[in-house]
Specification:
flat
């Protein structure tokens, strides 16, 4: 929803979730994200995630 974008809600929710995960003594966290989704990529990088691999998929439409 556009009215909620850019207000920090996603970052706050992600940081809270990461804190809960760390409290469970889990320190390796992975996620997949569409490589063209710049908003998501920037959010994850801002929260400490690092890019470890990139896969591009191709399709042929008939």
């Amino acid at each position: 929803m556009p009215e909620f974008r850019g207000k920090g809600y996603g970052k706050e929710a992600l940081i809270g979730t990461l804190q809960l995960i760390q409290e469970k003594n889990i320190y390796d966290i992975e996620l997949d994200v569409e490589s063209k989704n710049d908003n998501a990529l920037n959010l994850y990088k801002a929260c400490g995630f690092e890019e470890v691999s990139v896969m591009n998929y191709y399709e042929f439409k008939i």
